[in-house]
Structure formats: structure tokens, C-alpha cells
Design a protein that fits this description.
Length: 352
Amino acid sequence: MIQLMHRSAHPVRRRRYLPLIAAALLPTLISCSAEAPEDLLEPSASPEAASPFARQTDPSGCVIEQITTADHDEYQVQGASVDGRLLLTAASREGPAENDSVYEVYEVDLATGKKTDLSHVLQNSGPYSPDGRFIVVAQATDNGKTDIFEYERATGELRAVASHEEWDWLPSYSPDGRFILFNSYRVEGQSDIHLFEKSTGTLTRLTDDPGYDAHAQFSSDGKRILYHRQQGMREEGGYIFDLFVIDAETGQTTRLTDGDFEESYPAWAPDGRHIVFSSDAGGNHGKHNLYVLAPDGETTIRLTEGDWSDSYAFWSRDGEYIYFNSDRSGATNVYRMRMDGIDCARHGDLRT
Ligand SMILES: [Ca+2]
Ligand SMILES: [Ca+2]
């Protein structure tokens, strides 16, 4: 049984890991969802692009495409290149030896579906740097935990970022590529958000609380940092997660959601105002669908519906697609939903 850290408030217990995500590699605003949530739903004048991927319809009515078709769990972790051409996917299998894992990591050409194998150096999916030179991932260390590593695509070199003996997870780049955000268990029992400056090697801790803070993402203007925090456990089982934003200049933190649900894995739209995230508010606990939080902080738009988990969603830089992982077919695979011209999403309260 392959165990992944996603959804776990305590991934330190897990031997295996993969998913992460980072949508905020988006320095420019785009046409999708400019002002009001209705803008997300305007018909598109552009023709449907040819796609090598099979289409299906979500119970919500939204059309999605299936990028990977593995019979074992295969993920992306915000692993799209900024030019939208490549997607980094990762899977792990039990290895021949005890506690051993075999990793399968591929760059998928989204225009052709062609795969390039990077399994010899990477164990995980992760974001591309804004200039496309690097990929940042969490990978295993000799002590059985993880560090953040940058992979330089031209040279094939892998360099550790702010190594530490504890678990380090879910890295993402700032829009200018100067900084890497990640979460770390450097203080026992509490994952906190850290900011690493590449040029100086300076590491700054941005949060300090007992909650599991993770999945940090810069907004496209670099002024805000979005993340989720595990707030506790539900009595009936499952976790309580909420979304938060840090003002990068003042350090002030604002809570965006509040409820006994698992609202998690948020990512900015390219407009820096809408946020896509996962929530189990609409169905069974522990089963997650995708929602968009509108800039008013109140309105939500439901994108998917089903008794499964859709997770690690992020917007492509041009706003055209939301990519996500889903276990709707049994094994987890990578999907995308075309947002340009979407007419299926449902406005409403997240909790109705
Ligand atoms: Ca570490
Ligand atoms: Ca914390």
C-alpha cells in the first residue's frame, strides 16, 4: 500500500511522500476571473484547443481531461512549467527491499502527451521556477525524512535548500524566483512556514503556532502568502483545516475560512484574488471536491462533485486550466479543467 503525505496532519509518520503544490508562479494578471466571480463563467470566444487527453464530465457538469492514466497513484504537485508546456508527475511503488521505494517521475509534454523520465534524480513532483531553469521538490534524506531540493534542468544537478534533520515539505517559488517557501517541522510538533532567500541563504520563519501550517504560495504580485493550517480534529473523525493569508510587508495574518471542515491546499488564480482549494464541506468527511473562493471572501463556486478526493489544485499561469489530482477512478491521477469559458460551476455557499 502506497501511503502519501497528503491529507495527513502528521506526515512525519509516513514513510512515503509525494504531493505538494504551488500555483503562485504567476507574475502577470490574465483575463480569467478579473473582477467578480461571474467573470469565471463568461463564455469563451476562443476555440477549444486540440488536446491529447481524454475528456469526461464531472457530476458537476464540468468537463475535465485526464492527463495521467496510471493504475497506481500518480500525482502532480503544482508541477506545471510557467509557459504551460510541461507538467511534472510523480508516483512511488513499493521497492524490492523492505521500506524501499521506487519512484517514477516524468515531465509530460502537455501538447503531445510525450513523457521524459526524470526518475533517476527526482522522487517527487514540484513547481518549476518562473524562469523555467529549476524544479523545487521535497525529497528523502538519509535519516528517512525529507529536505527541499532544487533540480537544475540544464545541468541535472540537485542542490539541497536549507537542509535540516526534520521534515521539510511543499516548496514553492516567489513570482520573481528569488525566494522559496516551504513548511518545516523544525519546532517539534508544529509545522511552520519558512522563507528561503536563494541569493543569501537566509531562512526566515513566517509562522509560529501549534497548527500544521503548510502549502504556502506567494500571490502573483508577491505581496501575500496563502497557506492552510490544520486547526484540530473533528469529533466524528477527520481534520479541521482553514485557509490563511500573510501580508508579506506587515506580517499580519488573516484567516479566510472558518468551519469544521477540511478547507485546504489553496492556490491563487492568476488575478491574485480568486482562490481554488479543496474542501470536504459538501460531502463525506475526508472526501474533497474543488471550490473557488471569490475575492469578497464569502462567495464560493463549486467546481467538482463526487464521493472522492480532488486535491492539489492550481491554476495555470494563463488562467486557462485548473490542474488537480483526483482518486475518482480508484488510483489517483492528474486531471485538468478548462476554466476559460466554464459554464458548469455552481455559485453558492460552501456549506450548502
Ligand atoms: Ca529535512
Ligand atoms: Ca504551525
